[in-house]
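Dear colleagues,

For the upcoming journal club I promised to circulate an example of a predicted protein-ligand complex. I picked one with flavin-adenine dinucleotide because it came up in last month's discussion. The inputs are reproduced below in full, followed by the predicted structure.
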Amino acid sequence: MSHVVVVGASVGGVTCVQSLRELGFDGDLTLLDAEDGPPYQRPPLSKEVLLGGDAAHADLLDESALEAIGVEFRPGTPAVGLDVAGRRLRLAHGDLRFDALVLATGAAAAVPAPLTNLIERGAHVLRTRGDAVALAAALGPGSGLAVLGGGVLGSEIVSAAVSRGVPTTLLARTGQTLGPLRGALVQRLLPLHRSRGVAVQTDRTRISRGAGRWRIDAGAARHVADTLVIAVGVRAAAGWLERSLPVGPNGVRCDSRGRVAPGVWAVGDVADRAGGRYDVSRNTQAAAVAQAREVAGAIAGDPLRVPVVPYFWSDLHGVRVQAAGRIPPGVRIQPLDRDDAGAPLAFAVVDADGTVVGAAAWGSARGFRRARAMLGTPLEQEVVAR
Ligand SMILES: Cc1cc2nc3c(=O)[nH]c(=O)nc-3n(C[C@H](O)[C@H](O)[C@H](O)COP(=O)(O)OP(=O)(O)OC[C@H]3O[C@@H](n4cnc5c(N)ncnc54)[C@H](O)[C@@H]3O)c2cc1C
């Protein structure tokens, strides 16, 4: 294997090139990204940059660190197509030949067709560093914010805005799943937002714009906001691969180890892994890192033998939400611990055979440790909270 090309220089791509070198790969390594500037990660965008923090805090490393490990980094270089049999990556100007290719192009903010007109009229999304800088500048104590989408990202944006004193409205459908938690914790989320002063609207809404403000009508209720953010999910950045590889709505289809085709692997948000759809870590940084390490091992001939347990966390209004394992459809969500008011703090996700396949906790590190320790074991009735 003499030339490995990695497309996408965020957490998946950067972890992959670093791991290859750590594992002793001494061939040529090229890392390219469509965006200009140094590689960066996304978690600080909602947790620091929206709070007014320096956007440079999101940097993963500087370009000299890549140079030091012999990686040719090419920012501002979008890949536009792929010849799998000929092992050539198509760029805007010419082809790049590879022996192994790692697809790490991640995802973009999803904007369904009925909402594109809102973007045209100035609504924000949050995916890139530029998005975060623009949204942070729009948030101020005197201005109102409306967030469309009550999943993890929408909830993090609400949490950041509230902590900056921004009057905030959350437009969320009831029953909406909390991202990878697939309903395990959703019944606690909307009450938490309300307790922090957020106006939560769960009815069908009509959004219009006039006199420089957004107007949100929901039945008899009306809200106004200066800034609107659409946070309704992500779309895998795989459109450029549709002619050459199996691509579905969740990304490039690959086997359970990330292999797509001979010489081609996929990691992170762009990878639709066999069996991985219900991992709690799907579309998270933790998954991108774990998959990148695994694929680097496969390319370097040093495969990882211990499977990684999927893991997810988020901080919402200061409450740490955690989950591990899988939450597929049809499982039972069994509360384990409750707080003094009787609300569940930790959960075991139990499959039809009675085996614990997932664990989740709400603001309870102890509860999470307890639930996580049960993964892969039969649920014992005596541990179940009444
Ligand atoms: C605001 C925000 C906060 C988040 N917070 C958390 C968190 O707290 N915890 C957590 O686990 N996860 C979090 N996530 C999710 C996490 O950031 C993603 O799961 C992770 O970034 C996926 O990494 P990736 O490398 O697969 O893809 P991405 O981070 O999407 O990176 C893909 C890269 O590929 C480049 N690219 C795309 N198309 C092309 C092309 N055709 N040619 C060349 N380059 C291309 C892009 O420019 C980009 O740099 C958050 C996401 C967001 C948006």
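Two points we might discuss: DSSP finds nine helices and 26 strands in the chain. Residues 170 and 200 are 5 Å apart (CA to CA).

See you all on Thursday,
B. R.
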